[in-house]
Amino acid sequence: MKPKIRLMVRDWDYMVPLALGDVRADAFDIQVHRIETVPSDLATNPLYDAGEMSFSRYAQGRARGDMSIVGVPHFLMRAFRHRCIITAGDSPITEIHQLRGKRIGLTGWQDSGNVWTRAILSQAGIGVEDVRWYASRLTAQHPIMADRLEGFGRPGRIEAVVGERPLVELLRGGELDAVFTAFMPPGFFDPGSGLRQLLPHCRQAEIEYFRLVGYVPGIHVLGIKPAIVADHPTLPQALSEVLDESARVWIEKRRKYADTTPWILDELRQTAGDLPGNWNRNGFGPNEKMIADFGREMHAQLITPECLSPRDLFPMAA
After folding, report:
1. Of 42, 106, 215, 256, which sits most exposed with the smallest number of CB within 10 A?
2. Terminus-to-terminus CA distance in the chain, angstroms?
3. Is 22 within 8 Å of 249 (Cβ atoms)?
4. Measured between alpha carbons, how far is 112 from 13 in angstroms, rounded to an integer?
5. What are the DSSP E strand ranges found in 181-303?
6. Maximum Cα–Cα distance across the chain
7. In what order do the strands lie in the sheet with 50-54?
8. pTM of the predicted model, to two decimals?
9. Coil, helix or strand at residue 105
10. What backbone phi and psi angles, to 5 degrees, belong to 116?
């Protein structure tokens, strides 16, 4: 009887072939468990054997010498971050360098996505000390957190918003100049939302970023409990491969059944023209530069006490 692996993942569309059984692993039965929010500690969660986890939290664990998770250089979530900087609709700010000296809101300091977004500012010559940072919930519908900064706050530089006043309200009221957010707030896409992405041409900025660095940043990484790996040493590679196969099958189906949105074919065509076909390739070698850059950013932003190398982060990777 094949061992069962309980895999927790967000509701990514490319997981559909695996979840429905169209894609299967030869040596394992994989049970896909969909989650709304990525748990902060996979290692102590009794419900799952493997799953996606914050690249930042994983790196912080490695910096502490935490061996409770085996990290696999398979990035279940990748995303450009230029699009994740939003501002008020009538804001005069349209370029990254204009954020120097401004007030920026975010929902968490150590979040992987925000690490990458601050790296974009760094490329424009804007360091952590050149901005006033404010942490809070994105909207009033999001939960209040007792310690959103988790020890990374600094009075006068990185502060929690008193009473967890929503960032969107502060942005609309002119108390913030921009907000970093992975997910757009409700109503953002409505014509009268009063909000917009800071860069008028995000896609072009992201294409230029890719040409400069050579990757789409990894946000969430695959983690597996070490006891499972000890019993099944081939699991990390096998699980990575079946996830890749699910993504491949999903893209193939999207190209055929393209009527889910009016212009998905155009999006697929543009992506094929703007990025190489292997832009989302997983594994240690194809992602070594991106992993190294992330380690340097984590250290430069004082999230890890030392600069972790790719081998520090993924010592078991082939």
Report:
1. 256
2. 28
3. yes
4. 21
5. 195-197, 218-224
6. 63
7. 29-34, 4-9, 50-54, 218-224, 70-78
8. 0.95
9. strand
10. -65, -35
- Residue that finishes a domain, picked among 213, 240, 266: 213
Angle made by CA atoms 228, 233, 234, in degrees to the nearest 5:
115
Output helix, strand, coil percentages for the chain, rounded to the nearest 5. Answer: 40, 15, 45
Return the structure tokens found at 262: 């009016």
How many residues are recorded in the chain?
A: 318
Among residues 213, 239, 263, the one where a domain terminates is 213
Assess if residue 150 is contained within a domain.
yes
Q: Are residues 92 and 208 in the same domain?
A: yes
Q: Is the CB of residue 48 less than 8 Å from the CB of residue 42? A: yes
Instruction: Say yes or no: 25 and 104 in one domain.
Output: no
Q: DSSP letter at 209?
A: H
CA distances in angstroms from 106 to 8, 43, 53, 89, 94, listed in the order given: 26, 27, 19, 18, 19
Tokens 């250089």, located at residue: 73
Q: At residue 40, does pLDDT exceed 90?
A: no
How many Cα neighbours within 13 Å face the side chain of 145?
15
Query: In the structure, what pLDDT confidence band is assigned to residue 39 with cuts at 50, 70 and 90?
Result: confident
- Rg of the chain taking only CA atoms, in angstroms: 20
Extract the tokens encoding 317. Answer: 């990777």
Alpha carbon 225 to its chain centroid, in Å, reads: 21
Block residue for tokens 């703007």 = 274
Local structure of 301: helix, strand or coil: coil
Hey, what are 35's tokens?
């989650």
CATH no. for residue 282? Answer: 3.40.190.10
- Look at residue 230 in the predicted model and tell me its pLDDT: 96
